[in-house]
Amino acid sequence: MCRWTVTQGAPVAWSSSCLCCRPPSFLLSLTFLLLLLLLRPSPSSSLSLSPLPPSPSPPPPPPPPPRWPSDSVRDHNAPGGTQPHFLVQHPSSSSSPPPLPALSSARLPRATNVSSSSATVVGRHVRSSYNHLQGDVRRRKLFSYQKFFLRIDKKGKVNGTKSEDDPYSVLEIKSVDVGVVAIRGLSSNYYLAISKKGELYGARDFGPDCRLIERIEENKYNTYASAVWRNKKKHMFVGLSANGKPMRGKKTRRKNTATHFLPIRKISQIQKSLVKYTPTHKPI
């Protein structure tokens, strides 16, 4: 029912339960609200319409741990009913490998061609073809390239002689260190020595001047240089001049044949050495 009343000459519509009897503006607003409710998307539909991000692929399963044998493995086929046990050690990835056992000095191989005085030095070998260098003590005659025998007389004077039977030319060569020797006259009991000034003389007692470096040169002759004294950082050698006189160490050089000596064990080797090392020399 819609009731109309007249207020001050204008009709006013009272509200009623009938929607058709209400004013048009109210119906328009109500219709608009209904359309909004109908056209508004629901939360579930919006979630269903939106594209889903691709799900990450699951990581591959870790490889199964290696199956190690048990700590005790029994041999069921062992005769006599005995069941021996074998312990199996599991390798540990975090543990470092066991250190190698250190070789003691007693296990190191020893050179067979090195004298006893130089056996403690590793890597030094005496060539087997040079038999005159083997042994700690050698009795030799030093035959120079100038065809003189080095001699030390009873007064300690050093010079050269061409006599093969001179007793003062018999020398004793003793190894005192690696590559270092001491030369002593057996008859005079003097040591061959080189002073700080390069003078060649015979010393009654063994001292620093008596330490001589022995070296084999390319022509298979030996050179003897002072192991202590040098002249302007150059070695000073034992040398005999063409007249058989001792040379000053300051004037000697390694390549000078006046400083080259051949250790002779027997006098018969002298003629062989003359023919072998001096082609221009005619054998006697």
From TrEMBL:
Record's protein name: Fibroblast growth factor
Q: Name one GO molecular function term.
A: growth factor activity
SMART domains given in the database record: FGF (SM00442)
Family, similarity comment: Belongs to the heparin-binding growth factors family.
Q: Which organism is it from?
A: Myripristis murdjan
Q: Where is this region: Disordered?
A: 47-109
Q: Which UniProt keywords apply?
A: Growth factor, Signal
Comp. bias intervals (Pro residues): 51-68
